[in-house]
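User: Please run a holo structure prediction.
Assistant: Happy to. Please share the sequence and the ligand.
User: Here you go; the ligand is alpha-L-fucopyranose.
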Amino acid sequence: MSAQPDAPLKLWYTQPAKQWVEALPVGNGRLGAMVFGNPVQEVIQLNENTVWAGQPNRNDNPRAREALPEVRKLIFEDKYEEAQKLVNDRFISKTSQGMPYETVGNLKLSFEDHENYTGYYRELDLEKAVATSRYQVNGVNYKTEVFSSSPDQVIVVRITADKPRSISFSATMDRPANAIVSSQGNDALILAGRTADFEGVQGGVQFQAKTKIQAKGGTVKASEGSLQVEQADEVTIYVSIASNFNSYKDIGGDAAARADAYLQKALKKDIQVVYKEHVADFNRYFDRVNFSLGETGAVNLPTDQRIEQFKNGQDLGLVALYFQFGRYLLISSSRPGGQPANLQGIWNDQLTPAWDSKYTVNINTEMNYWPSEITNLTELNEPLVQMIRELSQSGRQTARDMYGAQGWMLHHNTDIWRINGPVDGAFWGMWPMGGAWLSQHAYEKYAFSGDKAYLASVYPILKEASKFYLDFLVEEPEHQWLVVAPSVSPENAPTAHPGSSISAGTTMDNQLVFDLFTKTIKAAELLGTDKELVADMKASLKKLPPMQVGRWGQLQEWMHDWDNPQDHHRHVSHLYGLYPSNQISPYRTPKLFDAARTSLLARGDESTGWSMGWKVNLWARLLDGNHAFKLIQDQLSPSIQPDGKQKGGTYPNLFDAHPPFQIDGNFGCTAGIAEMLLQSQDGAIHLLPALPDAWEEGSISGLKARGGFEVDIKWADNQPEDVTIRSALGGNCRIRSFFPLAGKGLKKAKGANPNPLYQVPKIKEPLVSGDADLKNLALKKVYEYDLATSPGNIYVLKTGRK
Ligand code: FUC
C-alpha cells in the first residue's frame, strides 16, 4: 500500500489527527463530522446544524427609540464618547447577545489491539467527499471511510479489512454536557440531549443522535451504553441525527421520530448504493469547476508539510487544492432547505465556541457566500437567501420598536432564532447595516442568472430594507448630507476618538445605502412597480455623502478625514466599494481606485484569516495579481507557530485560522482566487485581470460571470490562449483583456455595454485635495471587445498574438 495520494484533489497525512484542526471535515449541509482517523481510538465528532442553545426569542431594546435624537445630537456635536455611552445604556440588547451553536458530541471507536499499527495513511478526497484512513496491524490491511450523505441524510462509517473476521472494536458516544447515552437493542446507541440555557434564554432544542452498527460476519452486542463488535468481516455504521427544530419560530418537531425515519430509509438501501448516490450528488456541484496551475513534486508531500513549505514559492498546486477545498466546504455546509454556513460552517466541537459560532454580518456571513456565484455553486446560496427572507420578517419589529421606522433592519449579528437587536456593546454592535449588506446577496443571484421570477421573489426584501433607510437616514449639519447615524465603521475607532467607534455617515454605510437603493430601484423598474418609492430613493441618493479622498491620498474611512496611516485594523470596511461592490473601478473612477489602493497598502497584509481573504479579493480588484498572490501566501502559512502560539493563517487540515478556526477565510480566499482569474462587476468580463507573474500557465473552467455567462480560460506565458464562453441568456458579452483576442463575431467594443445585466453605477469622482498624491493613474493597456451571443451558444476565442 502506498502512502501517497493517487489524485491531486486530496488532503492527505501520514499520521492520525491529534487535534481537532488536524481532523478532516465531511458534511451534507445539515450533518457534519470531523474525522480524526485514529486506528486505536477513532473519534468522529458530530454536528447537526439546528443544534443551537436557547429557543425562539427576541433581543430588541425598545428604549432606543426615545434616546435616538439625543444620540444623534451628541454625534453631531462631536461628543462621541457620550454618544457611545448612551447607546450602551439604551440601545444594546439587555437580553440575548445571540445563542451559541453547539456540538452534538462524539462517536468513539476503540480498537484495543491496534496499537502497533504501521503504514498509516489518511486522506480527504475532495471529488468523492470521503475521508479515509488505512493502516496495517498484524498483517491485516484496515480501511475506514467516512462520508455524510445528502441523499440519505446520514453519516456513514465503513470499516473493512482484507482478511475475514479481523474487525473487533467497541463503540461509545459522548457529549461534553446535557446528554444521555443508552443502547437500543443489540446494535444501536442513542445520544439524546437538550441544548443549553444561555443568557436567560432556556435551551429548547432537543436532539437525538442514533448510531446503528451492521456487521458482516462476527457479532454485535450492547452493554452499558456501548456496543461491542467481535470478529466481523466488514462493518457499516450509520449515524442519524435530528432535532425538534422546525423553524426560527417553532421547535415543536419530534427529534427521535425524525432520526429514526432517516435511519430506516438509509438502512433499506444497499450500502454501495448509498455510497454511489452520495458521490454522484456531491459531484453534481463539485465537478462544475476545474482548476489547474500545474503540479510540482509537492503533490507528493503530505498536506501539512505543503502548508509549511508554501512560502518557499513553487507549489502552485496547493493554490488549486485550497480553492477546491473552499468549494468543497460550501457544498458540505450549505444545502438548499438548511441553515446557511455559520462562522465555522457546520463544524464545531464545543458548547460555547468563539463568537458562539453564529452569524456575524458585518463581514463574516457575507464572505462565506462570496464564492457561491462565481465558482458555479448558485443553489448553495439558497440557505442564505432563506435566512435573509426570515430576517426581513423578524427585523420589522426591530425597525419599528427600536427606531420607529418602517421596513426591516438587522445589526451586526444574528443566530438561528433570527435575532436582529444590537449585541456585544456599542463599539461593535451599533451597526444598523446588516439588512443593507445581506440584501446585496439576495440581488446578486439575479445579476448572474437574469432570473426575473427569482428577482420578484426577493424584491420585498430589498424594498423593505430600503424603506428602513428612507426613514432612518438623517441630515448631518455640516453638508446637509443624508447619513446613517448612529453607526460605526465596523469595529474600528478613528484616532480622533479612539475610545468610541460611534460616528455618522461612515464610508461603508454610504456605499451600502447607495447599493441598496440602486439595486432596489433597478429591481422595481424591471418589475414595473413602486414608482413613488423609486422617486424617494432617487432623491435620497443625490444627498448621500460622496466617497472622499483624504489628506494622505487615502479613501476616507469616515466622513471626516480621520484615517491614520498607521492603522492596521483587520476590517477594511470602506473598501467594500471596491470589493464586493463595484463602486470603485480602475476605468470609471481612477481617482477613487488610486485612493483605495493607498488605503489598502497602508492597512498592511498580514492579519486575521478572513481579513487576508478579503485582501486577496481587493488586490484582485486592484488588478495586482502579485500582491493578491502575496496575500494567498500569507494566508496559506501555518497558523500554529513553533512555540504553540497561533496567528492568522491555515491549520493542518486547511481550515482557516482567525485564530481560532473561522471558515470565512477559506471562502474569502477561494472567491479571491476566482476574482484574480475572472471579474464581471465592471461592465465587462475581464479575463485574467490579476494573474500573478508566477502563475505562468494554467486553466480554469466553469467560472460564472454576471449576465448568464460561463467561462473557461486556458493560458500560457501569462496570456490567454483559449477562451470558451457559454451564454445562457444571450445578449452582448463585453470582454476585457490585457492581451488581444481573436474569434468569430468578436468586434472592438463601442459605447456603453448594452447588456442590461451589466449596468454599472454612475459614481462621481471626488475632488482630490492639493497635498494628496495619486500614484496609480497610469493603467496597463486594455483591449475591449463585444460579442453578440445567443442563448445556449458556445463561443471560442483564441489568442490574438501573431
Ligand atoms: C467580527 C470580527 C472578528 C471576528 C468576529 C467573528 O467581529 O471583527 O475578527 O471575525 O467577527
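Residues 343, 355, 360, 364, 491, 570-571, 608, 610, 658, 662 surround alpha-L-fucopyranose (CB under 6 Å).
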